[in-house]
Design goal:
single chain; about 180 residues; alpha+beta; Gyrase A, domain 2; four-stranded antiparallel beta sheet; 4 strands; elongated
């Protein structure tokens, strides 16, 4: 066993000098912080005591500019709100040009359309042809659209009649969008 074990902390001169330097630096940092704070407080009070009018004039100027910006801000808020609402309506609204072009593409060449009414819920078409096969092709095209759920959801044949004076067949259909 060793008898040379020393449990006491040895303090040498170099460690004492380091501790002293750290204390001096800490004191200098705190003193400079307090000094800068007191100096800025003194300058502020001095400026305030000498002539507060430039500060008040600048304050009024800034408040005036802010009130003008508040009017613009209100106008921008209203415009943004309107644009958002229009965007919502456009997203909900159906594109009727696609509906009409899609339906007109399914009409056979032998069938002439006399009346074509489109609104946001339904389409009513009235047409005539000299051939029943053109009317049958038209009905088949529309029923295929219903089965494929392309544009229309349902199809109702309102009337199918023979016009003897013109020797043609008339058809009227209603489709739900």
């Amino acid at each position: 066993m060793s008898t040379d074990i020393n449990l006491l902390l040895v303090t040498d001169e170099e460690s004492l000098k380091r501790k002293k330097r750290v204390r001096i630096l800490n004191f200098a940092a705190a003193a400079s912080l307090i000094g800068v704070g007191l100096a800025s407080l003194g300058v502020f009070l001095l400026i305030r005591a000498i002539d507060p009018s430039p500060i008040l004039a600048e304050q009024k100027d800034v408040l005036g500019k802010m009130s003008q910006l508040e009017n613009r801000q209100a106008k921008l808020f209203i415009l943004n709100n309107r644009v958002e609402n229009i965007d919502k309506v456009l997203k909900i609204r159906k594109d009727l040009s696609k509906v009409t072009s899609g339906l007109l593409a399914k009409i056979p060449s032998d069938l002439s359309i006399d009346d074509f009414e489109v609104n946001d819920k339904s389409v009513i078409m009235t047409g005539q042809s000299r051939s029943l096969s053109a009317i049958g092709e038209f009905i088949n095209n529309l029923t295929d659209m219903v089965y494929k759920k392309e544009i229309i959801k349902s199809l109702t044949i309102n009337s199918l009649a023979l016009d003897e004076s013109r020797n043609s067949y008339r058809i009227s259909v209603k489709s739900e969008l």
